[in-house]
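One thing: mind reviewing this one?
=====
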Amino acid sequence: MRSAASAAAISNDLRRQMLPQMVGIRAAEHREFANQLIQEWNGYAQMTRGVIPPDALTADAAIGVKYYYVPDLRVVDLHGLTDPTVAHHPFAGSNDQRVIAHDRRPSPGYVEERGINLRIYPPSSSELEALRYGTYAILVGMNLWMPFDSDDPEWVSTRLAERSVLWRRNMVPAEVSQSRPMRPDHDRGLPQNRW
């Protein structure tokens, strides 16, 4: 009995050490995380293709599920799993700080150099809801709004000119709050309002 308790203690200790490095995470945890993302982002499966301009570019650390549903949007992968420049940028920390398949970061200035111009959020069913999460919103399908931010209002006005772009600043209704509630995906990947 004592050896089983010792083995369990050793196993638990090793899991505590490996968890921050994402080693040995149970498949159930990955599945639940994926299910949560699917639930948040699958509304974009109904999106009309061709809505997003071909020069639209975003950056994110969690590129799998989100951009599966938004295939027209090009993405800079901040972990380098699909971006060779980031993948070949050396890891600067110590080995105990490494995170399996997620420890690469872009070199300083790389993201800005790429010309990131769009950050999208999970779909909304109304323009007012969309404008609670993004500075801008566009209709991308039947009762399907894409809330988004951009640090380049000129890009938004020129590249989305043929679409009706809603801008929170131009909205007067009290329903559009100036402070955004947290969406579940806000803390994943990039800090808010930063590429």
Summary: The first strand starts at residue 57 and ends at 60.
